[in-house]
Amino acid sequence: MIPLQHIVEPERLLLTWQPLDEQAPVRTRRVVGEIVKEANGQFIFRYLKGSTDFLSAQAAGFQGFPAFSLNQAETRQGVIESLMRRLPPRNREDFADYLAQHRLPHPFQNSDFALLGYTGARLPSDGFALVPVFPGNAVPCDYLIEVAGVRHVIGSDVSTIRDGDSVTFESDTDNPVDQDALTVLHQGKRIGYVNRALKETFHQWLSTHTVHAVVERQNGKPERPLVFVRVSVN
Question: What does the DSSP 8-state code read for residue 227?
């Protein structure tokens, strides 16, 4: 396992949510909030109330993130501390294994803010995940993404996809749900999509930089395969 070489500090993090119920009529992952760092080093969380994603998430059952009240315009106290509870502590014996799962170097010298962004801080018990927004000129940058929608695009058979295979990205202008959608192509065949919350970052990378991407690993259950791609931006 080769760790990611170029870790970039995010300029902000997006809080996303997706219904856990596999039988839900719509399971689109929505951006419901953001965490920003002010010039004085303080972190602030805000729900993106009024946005299309937030309203769609509420319609799908979203009731807020447990640590942040929906009744407050913003949260300024204990933001990073609350989110870090979703990760194993840095002093735990198996922390190096946790980093390796996300292809992060050990010891991890970057901030907790970057650690949250690069791991996503997911838990199996809820539908929340964090997505980093990187500064546009912060290159080189390495990042590991999970290809979204693999099961819905190609089904459960990923036998033709192998670690180290190159993948490319292409706009899906005919997508009826998301006209800015970015597809992930393997040997010219669509295998899934870039996470909706990452689209803006990827569009900027693809238009201004050189993007190289390869399949890093596959896991998950036979009925729900997961494909992860290592992205290098220069």
Answer: E
Short-list 84, 108, 26, CA closest to 59:
26
Report how far Cα 36 is from the mean position of its chain's Cα atoms: 16
Render pLDDT for 90-111 as a digit per residue (tens, 0 to 9).
Answer: 999 999 999 999 999 999 999 9
Exposure on the CB side of residue 169, measured as CA atoms within 13 A: 29
CA 209 to chain centre: 20
Q: How far is CA 189 from the centre of its chain?
A: 22
Domain 137-234 has CATH 3.40.50.300: no
pLDDT of res. 1: 81
Sign of CA dihedral 29, 167, 156, 86: negative
Q: Where are the domains of the chain?
A: 1-133, 137-234
**Distance (Å, whole) CA 188 – CA 165:** 12
DSSP string spanning 133-202? Answer: E--TT--SEEEEEEPBTHHHHHTT--TT--TT-EEEEEE-TT-SS-TT-EEEEETTEEEEE--GGGHHHH
- What the block records as the tokens of 98 is 């946790």
